[in-house]
Write a structure and sequence with these properties.
alpha/beta, Rossmann fold, Alpha-Beta Plaits, four-stranded antiparallel β-sheet, about 35% helix
Length: about 300
């Protein structure tokens, strides 16, 4: 079956600097593909081109077999886009905003009301339809952003850093929603956080300095990874011995009274287990993130191999 997204030798230059160079990529009709890269690697440039918000310098993008540059309106009918900062009009209610988005998508008037209700139900925001967006939490705003991306039932949903800035409870809810969407749509999701890609994606495309340095399954990517670590900050820290009881945790060392470095290996779910343990035991988790150094080491290893 034809892939929903095909990119051929995609390149883009800002002034004299190439942001991305010779990007080739294909995505099937459902499931989640992760676009992983550090800040400035070229992820947002690639996504903006895929969604037609930016014209590439070179190369082609095909959406469901349609050349995006030659037939942009036809191609964009099959694209839903959630930018890194959701494009919300906070003075509108949720219902008003989603109706406006449906109109922007040139949906048939008779189908708009049903599409709004369906998008709200899928994203768990039916009960906030009449509320002003400005009065909603970050988690609900993100859900509204996702709702506008799927309201016209596109075949491809593109999400740029969709979990950025959410608290641990909101993270779990939004991850679940993204997995549900991927059952009916192809999802391309970007992140600079390796643990997010691990939790959500089966396919991974790794980009660094504007070039793809790895493109394969998550299992294949794991072969490159050494035991890694994360940082966790809690207001009511447990003893290190309690952290070692969490499946996958191999070592825990406190850097301050409230910040701990946790080493783990062979398990993609350790961060979720730590979040669950915090809720259960009242650790009052405030922050959890994969250590940046490990991700950079992986970039360096894969980048060096790609040039051999």
């Amino acid at each position: 079956m034809q892939n929903i997204l095909k990119i051929e030798r995609l390149s883009h230059r800002y002034s004299s600097t190439w942001a991305i160079r010779d990007i080739n990529l294909e995505i099937g009709r459902n499931g989640i593909t992760g676009l992983l890269g550090s800040n400035g690697a070229g992820k947002s440039t690639t996504m903006n081109i895929i969604c037609g918000a930016l014209n590439q310098t070179e190369g082609r993008v095909y959406i469901n077999g349609v050349d995006l540059r030659r037939e942009p309106e036809l191609a964009k009918k099959e694209i839903g886009f959630l930018p890194q900062n959701p494009p919300l009009y906070t003075d509108l209610t949720t219902d008003e905003y989603l109706r406006y988005c449906a109109e922007l998508r040139r949906m048939v008037e008779s189908k708009i009301k049903g599409a709004v209700e369906e998008a709200k139900e899928r994203c768990g925001i039916t009960h906030v339809g009449g509320r002003l967006i400005r009065n909603l939490s970050g988690g609900y705003r993100q859900r509204i952003g996702i709702a506008q991306a799927i309201i016209h039932k596109p075949k491809l949903v593109v999400m740029d850093e969709p979990t950025n800035g959410l608290d641990p409870n909101q993270l779990i809810e939004v991850r679940k929603l993204i997995r549900e969407i991927a059952q009916q749509h192809a999802v391309l999701l970007s992140s600079h956080i390796l643990s997010e890609i691990h939790l959500l994606c089966k396919e991974i495309v790794m980009i660094e300095a504007g070039r793809i340095v790895f493109s394969d399954t998550m299992d294949a990517f794991d072969n490159y990874m050494q035991p890694h670590s994360l940082l966790m900050r809690v207001e009511n820290p447990p003893p290190a011995t309690d952290l070692l009881k969490i499946k996958g945790v191999t070592r825990a060392e406190f850097l301050t009274a409230t910040q701990v470095r946790i080493y783990f290996e062979g398990d993609q779910e350790v961060s979720e287990r730590l979040v669950a343990a915090s809720l259960l035991h009242g650790w009052r988790l405030r922050e959890i993130s994969l250590e940046r150094g490990q991700l950079d080491d992986t970039f360096k290893k894969l980048s060096s191999q790609s040039h051999q």
